[in-house]
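Pipeline run #58 for the internal structure catalog. This entry was flagged by the ingest filter as a single-chain record with no existing model, so it goes straight to prediction. Upstream metadata was stripped on purpose; only the residue string is passed forward. Reviewer on rotation: M.T. Logging verbosity set to normal.
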Amino acid sequence: MFCGGGGMSLGFAAIAQATGAFRLIGGVDINEVSLRTYEHNYGIPAQKIDVRELANSNKSLNKFLASLPEYDQKLPTILIGCAPCQGFTAHRKKNWDEPDIRNGLAFAGLLTVFQTPQMVFPMAIVADIVDYDTLRSCRNRAGSYFSIRSLCHMGVSAVGSALGFYVLALVGYDPKTSANTAAATLGMQIDLLVLPGVFFVVAAAILFRFPIDARRHAVIRRRLDRRAARIARDTRGAIGI
């Protein structure tokens, strides 16, 4: 986000070149010159999108990610960005005593992170659980697992939205007016940034201990493949092929 000419991406690009640990897949900005510069520097697509649109719409964020040729939802995704900081400095020469609209972009960047819970609990994890269950139970219940995951996702979204609106009402924030008190504005920011961030970090900490890593999943897949090959061999023998 806020890719500019790619200054913040340079460090990741250097690590990627040295170790192969990262792969840059795309950038976002609203400045045409910056976008062309970024694409020239890194050879990857950069799109003209307002970060606030990504922050306010999970559909827009998913559409953006899907448009990136090298995006793979099975791999960890690192979101990097440097929001404009001019509005926060005390050295502004003009209108220093007035709120700066650019300050909201930093919050929009954080909100974009909280729009991506599927990156903490991706579908790939569900697939790993399905493989493990298939190995243990000898039954393929993928449909049930994915349905439960979708149901939980919708349920959490509904509860989270209701809780968010309740907190806004509790702190007295009115979105229809620009004359909210400082306490109401602070309450809104905590509601939209701090509370989701706490749940997000807790979920990430729990899932960090997910027991099926790449090595264990490879073992599970080998056993499933051997079982499938044995069943296919026995079936061919039973029908005399």
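catalog note: The longest strand covers residues 27-29.
catalog note: The mean pLDDT is 78.
status: ready for reviewer M.T.
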